[in-house]
Amino acid sequence: MLLVSPRRLRAQGTPRRIGLLGGFLDSQGRNAWRSGLREKGWIEGRNLLVEYRFAETPDRLSTLAAELVTLTPDLVIALGPSPALALKSATATIPIVFVVVADPVGLGLIQSLARPGGNMTGLASWVPGDWTAKQIEILQELVPGASKIALLVNPSNPMHKLMVAEEAPSAARKLGVALPIVEATADEELDIAFASAAAQHADAIIVFGDVLIIRQAPRVIALAAKHHLPAMHFFRQFADGGLVVYGPDIFDLLRRAGGYVDKILKGIKPPELPVEQPTRFELVINMKTARALGLTVPPSLLIRADEVIE
Predict the structure, then answer these.
(1) Which residues of the chain have pLDDT under 50?
(2) What angle do CA 266, 79, 165 make, to 5 degrees?
(3) How far apart are CA 247 and CA 81, in angstroms?
(4) Which of 86, 176, 227, 249 has the greatest number of beta carbons closer than 10 A?
């Protein structure tokens, strides 16, 4: 019997294998992810095999996480908080890189940003503390006198639960606004959530980022228009029709994930890799939507915008 070491096989060109678990990845996101790998010399299908698993519903995540773990990949990528928690439950040994997780410390995924500990590291999608307050302040510049701002959340998203429990009450106290919660865990519940916000006479709505929300972007934009609700969105994909987007450059985070993949495949352990936060936050304002809502965008906000869509 001829024994060949894995290292020797890799030198001869055997591809490395990684897994990716998420709920959704559009073509733009997939391009960003692949370009980040290419920058580090990893070409999918050539020297890298990627096992993709996407959960249509959150209850599928634990099954798909277990499926990936049985393949014993060199590492797994978790897109979002729920996939990250599912993978954390599935393995304590395979390295996990999370992407687009707002507060990984608050969720209990890692010990600290500088020293993650365990088998996880990755890219956070915001700087926790006063994110909701910043969103409210921007909306109040757009909608002067807005004192009731609905929050559209998905209660099955662990990050949303954390924000509703911690950030939202503190923002409400700090800014003296009412923040009624409207919920949607499935597509058909979006209509009910927007109708509820309108029935409660909300002056505006903040749409929390989520797989369900991004999958249903056109519907969410249409519902905000139907109920005449000025809406603040988290993802850049909502800029075409949505009033205002304020959030991290998600595609930049997906690109930067390639750096973590590269380092781990070259032998660096997750605890040795600090968690990175976004370097860019985008403010995008859609003037056409503002005019349709009868809003005047103040010059102070236009100056700060990264992009103004006419």
Answers:
(1) 1-12
(2) 125
(3) 16
(4) 86
Can you say whether the dihedral through the CA atoms of 96, 155, 218, 229 is positive or negative? negative
Ramachandran region, residue 217 (left: φ > 0; alpha: ψ -120 to 50; beta: rest)? alpha
Q: Tell me which amino acid residue 270 is.
A: P
> What is the model's pLDDT at position 10?
45
Q: Which of 217, 157, 205, 224 is nearest to 184 (CA)?
A: 157
Phi first, then psi: what are they for 64, rounded to 5°? Answer: -70, -35
Residue 140: per-residue pLDDT: 94
Q: In whole angstroms, what separates CA 217 from the centre of its chain?
A: 14
pLDDT at position 163 is: 83
Q: What is the pTM of this model?
A: 0.84
Which residues have a Cβ under 8 Å from the Cβ of 87 and sit 6 or more positions away?
21, 65, 68, 69, 76, 78, 96
CA separation for the pair 305, 71 (Å, rounded): 45
CA-closest candidate to residue 36, choices 258, 219, 247: 258
Q: Which amino acid is at 16?
A: R
User: Which pLDDT score is estimated for 164?
Assistant: 83
Which amino acid appears at position 222 of this protein? A
* Phi, psi of 219, rounded to the nearest 5 degrees: -65, -40
* Alpha helix positions (H), the chain: 6-11, 27-39, 61-70, 81-90, 131-142, 158-165, 167-175, 189-199, 211-215, 217-226, 250-265, 287-292, 299-304
What the chain holds in terms of domains, given with CATH numbers, is 6-125+249-279 (3.40.50.2300), 131-248+282-309 (3.40.50.2300)
Tell me the CA distances in angstroms from 60 to 67, 79, 96, 188, one per residue in order. Answer: 11, 14, 19, 19
Tokens of 4: 């060949």
